[in-house]
Amino acid sequence: MSHTAHIPSHRKPRQSASKTALRAGVAGGVLSTIAVAGAAGPAQAEPVTQTIEMPTITAGLSPAVAASAEATQQVALDLETQANEDAAAETAAKKAKKAKAEAVRKAEAEKKAEAAAKARAEAAEEAAERASRTAERTTLSASSGSSASSSAPSSYSSSSATGSAASIVAFAKAQVGDAYVPGGTGPNSWDCSGLVQAAYASVGIDLPRVSQSQSTFGTQVSLDSLQPGDILYWGSAGSAYHVAIYVGGGQFVGAQNSSTGTVQRSLDYDMPTGAVRVL
Predict the structure, then answer these.
(1) If exposure means fewest CB atoms within 10 Å of the residue's CB, which of 48, 131, 214, 237 is most exposed?
(2) pTM of this structure
(3) Domain range 153-277, its CATH number among 3.30.1360.120, 3.90.1720.10, 3.10.20.740, 3.30.1330.10
């Protein structure tokens, strides 16, 4: 017995020629079918023409979204309008404040200028008044050949005022400190003749209104024999430019000018030209 008799062989058994031919024929038929199908496939394919529409999920929200957008736009417009109005109001307020400040500044400047001009005018008025009185006294002295009218009297009456004279003196003194105003007749501002007229009216005596007429109303008296209540005048009798009331003790009360107002002064301050006695 051979040692290799039962060892199986590893070689594949030979196939028969008929099986091989059969398998070759089947494979060839399959390949032919695939080739025929591939050639015919592209020509027979039809394009897809149907369109699938997806549902619009926001279609129902369009009116609400539009309304919301419109409301938002309106709010934005309102805010912009309000901002513009606020800015305009602020600008107008600043301009008004600036204009007011400028007006106040101009008013103060005008007030100061007016006060300065008034002070200069009053100073000039007083200087002119003094110069006029001095010139008048000089003229009167030259025409009379005597200086008695322009010199202080040697003595003043020391008698006390009584009766109506006392009332006139008291009235005149009560007005000291009042303002001088041309044409003033009281009760808190006077001109010279207005004060004298009011003082005499307080005791029921009606004097003329102007100094020229007052300087001749009554009896002319010497400056050396004055009595309280006498009317002093500056200038000549009948054309006097200033009057006052003698109150005794060498003093007079008169509404002098815009600078001094109504004052009580010594006769030496501004010596009068003459005097008249009414009482």
Answers:
(1) 48
(2) 0.48
(3) 3.90.1720.10
